[in-house]
Amino acid sequence: MTEPASDQAPPAFLRRAKALTDRLLGRRKVAFVLSGGGNLGAVQVGMLKALAESGIQPDLIIGCSVGSINGAAYAAEPNMRGVKRMERIWGRIADGDPDLMPSSRFVHPTVQMARRGESIHEQDRLEALLDEELQAKTFRQLKVPFTCVATDVDTADEVWFDSGRLVPALLASAALPAIYPARRFAGRTLIDGGVLREIHVHKAVELGATDLYLLHVGHLDARPTSISRPFDSAMRAYWTARRYRLADDLRRLPNGCVLHTMPPGSSPVLRFDDFTQGRELAELAYTASWAYLATGRTPAPVAGPRSEHLDDADDDLAGQFATETDVSAIESL
User: Fold this and answer.
1) 293, exposed or middle or buried, with CB in 10 Å at 0-12, 13-18, 19+?
2) Local structure of 34: helix, strand or coil
3) Who contacts 264 (Cβ-Cβ below 8 Å, separation ≥6)?
4) pTM
5) SS (H, E, C) 40-82
6) Each residue's pLDDT tens digit, 30-61
7) Nearest residue to 302 via CA among 286, 314, 318
8) How many C-beta neighbours within 10 Å does residue 155 have?
9) What is the pLDDT of residues 221-269, one digit of tens each?
10) Which pLDDT value is given to residue 239?
11) 3-state secondary structure of 185
């Protein structure tokens, strides 16, 4: 049985002291597991800030999609200086420097999704940003062991990266279908690492982790789905499949593993290409995560930011990529 984070957790200083003692004795190994989530990735910056301030240090970082980018940045500088750098990067993106998903006010998102071609956008702006901002250029230069995942579309396999050049691996892990094109790597066609799994706790356990901190950008509690359109039924089926996979992975955690789920702090409703709310998302996640680490209790999420001029069609796209409806099931384990 997994030992979930308890609502009656001991005081933070006692937990930190015990964790440090266990690690010095070689009994525990801490992993940060970062999910995908597109423009909601700023949430993980707030979580990492709370973890850094609490003195919780990872022995291993697992990244998926945008979580691979955040995870690599933190692995390069796993301290408050690294958090400040990430805050600056997400602040730049929020201000449109660079515009990762340039759009035309004359072209509706649903029209963009229906146009010819593999994807709406290219990854050139994201690639330039990573080349400019990441201090480490290779996995070997990272200060914390880090691995990230992409999906092979031909074999339906997970493809893991832990050596070589960093940016090509991150671009493959974050190649969100329909939004960014697939990447060719060593003869494989690779897309976003979250296609098969969004939270890769199995990999952390495989690599010896005993204390898992989940940095998921959405909520992992059960939420009702209102069905008013055929699209809603399709989305319910999608999230049911994701929920099953997560629940199955968590049931397979070995005895002695301790699971900490960092709270995202809010329930935003954003268009998939709206990066302007990054600072607010990070701050809300930081406040909630700090409270959780101090008390062991997860605060109820606030409403969170909402994209301007979000109509029904935009809601469809927002829901597809990362908003109110999220995976659930930890409560049932």
Assistant:
1) buried
2) strand
3) 40, 43, 47, 216, 217, 218, 219, 281, 284, 285, 288, 301
4) 0.82
5) HHHHHHHHHHHHHHCCCCCCEEEEECHHHHHHHHHHHCCCHHH
6) 999 999 988 999 999 999 999 999 999 999 99
7) 286
8) 10
9) 555 666 776 756 766 776 677 777 888 888 889 989 999 999 999 988 8
10) 67
11) strand
Quote the CA–CA distance of 4 and 261 in Å, as a whole number.
9
Tokens representing 112 are 């963009």
> 124-133 vs 80-94: helix axis angle to the nearest 10?
150
Give me the residue label for tokens 């301007």: 308
User: For residue 318, what are its two tokens?
Assistant: 């927002």
Q: Are 91 and 275 in contact (CB under 8 A)?
A: no
On the CB side of 33, CA atoms within 13 Å amount to 27
In the structure encoding, which two tokens stand for residue 123, read together?
């990854």
CA-based angle 261:64:316, to the nearest 5? 85
Residue 253 near residue 205, CB atoms below 8 Å = yes
